[in-house]
Amino acid sequence: MHFSTIEFCSLLAYSPRGDSNTQGLSRTVMRTLKNDEYVKLRSNQILMSDYVADRIKYNINKMPFADYFKTNPVLVPTPNSSLNKSGTLWVPQRIATALVRKGLGSKVVECLSRVTPLPKSATSLAANRPKAFEHYDSMKVKKILDEPREILLIDVVTRGSTLLGAANKLADAFPHARIRAFAAMRTISSQSDFTKINDPCMGTITLVNEDTFREP
């Protein structure tokens, strides 16, 4: 792979464990996001993908990661862990499309696909979750656009391995592009580190040996 560290940003956070009201609600929000279900915003029912785009659009100047979107990047959704089939829910693509509708990116380019299915990280034991290099090896890039100056990878919930593998695969095809990543939500494994659901941040995802570490 080309690089061992990528920059990323994230809007929401959730705690996979914990009994507080906020921790429990964060898991409900996570499931709503993964299924792109409807939520209420300003008396309207909108899809969660539109909610994410709306929050960023109307608070962009308060977001620590405003530069990620103001550079007008090409948005590339990460593929599902399974092989894409017609009619399959593809939430990263929905989020990317919603962001572009709000002017947060130049266009959506579906150039990254899965050629070998992998186990879902969310349903795998920690020791069995696919590594970054497995994600890298299981994807391919269709060169359906000229090399962009900026690429922003779009994912739903991340621990980091998918984004790091995907970024390196894109770097094969677009070696001169700046590649960063946006995850709508990030997992906070430590209960003591989780403080709130709406928690915009910037950070890094780093590969050390075969393991991926995300900060924060």
CA-based gyration radius: 16 Å
Q: Report low-confidence residues grouped into runs of 5 or more.
A: none
Shape, please?
globular
Task: Please describe the biggest sheet, giving its number of strands, its sense, and whether it closes into a barrel.
Answer: 7 strands, mixed
Mean pLDDT reading: 93
User: How many DSSP-defined strands?
Assistant: 11
Helix content: 25-40%
**Order of strands in the sheet with most strands:** 5-4-8-9-1-10-11
Count up the domains: 1
What fraction of the residues are assigned to beta strands by DSSP? 25-35%
Give the SSE string: EHEEHHEHEEHEEHEEE
Q: How far is the first residue's CA from the last residue's CA?
A: 23 Å
State the helix count.
6
Assembly state of the chains shown? single chain
The secondary-structure class comes to alpha/beta
Question: Would you kindly provide a brief summary of this structure?
Answer:
With 216 residues, the chain is of the alpha/beta class. The protein has 6 helices and 11 strands. It has one domain (5-215).
